[in-house]
């Protein structure tokens, strides 16, 4: 009977159990740290993707006020179009030097205009800057008065034409980043010196 309780080295002692338990806890802690780190990294990257997507999908400029047109000397066609642009709420600054304005109409193929000193058939001009400095960036609270020589754009078309009474035309403002902002207008039935286009 005493032989049953004899010392045997095949048993599992409390010290060995503690060592194994500590090893399991350390492995679990390292694994959970790695998994949490990967989760936080993935969350951060997905937030960046969402913010970038929202920036790309939303337009960063908007129309501020009416689109005003001036006629030629004979009051038969639209000569220039003036509009005011500002940033959308929460929008980032827009560099007008890198912005394109595409003019099109049923009789005018799309014509890309870049920023220039004077509005003509190839360029639009910044006639005035309000609430800001003299650079070409539309910043927060700034408004830019943009002039487009619609008559010259129509005259420079492959088939020279003009935008007269009841004619439709479209302006697409394409900033370097963000969605295109489209303005669709129709000339009134009677052309006068100064007109508000709707």
TrEMBL record:
**Compartment annotation:** Archaeal flagellum
Asked if the keyword Transmembrane helix belongs to this entry, the reply reads yes
Q: Which UniProt keywords apply?
A: Archaeal flagellum, Cell projection, Cilium, Flagellum, Membrane, Transmembrane, Transmembrane helix
User: Cellular component per GO?
Assistant: archaeal-type flagellum
Q: Which GO terms describe its molecular function?
A: structural molecule activity
- Where this protein primarily resides, as one coarse class? other
Biological processes annotated in GO: archaeal or bacterial-type flagellum-dependent cell motility
Name any one Pfam family assigned in the record.
Flagellin_arch-type
**Does the record carry Transmembrane as a key word?**
yes
Q: Where are the transmembrane segments?
A: 12-36
Tell me which family the UniProt entry assigns to this protein: Belongs to the archaeal flagellin family.
Q: What does this protein do?
A: Flagellin is the subunit protein which polymerizes to form the filaments of archaeal flagella.
User: Which PANTHER family does the entry mention?
Assistant: FLAGELLIN B1
What name does the UniProt record give this protein? Flagellin
Instruction: Give the organism, scientific name.
Output: Methanosarcina mazei
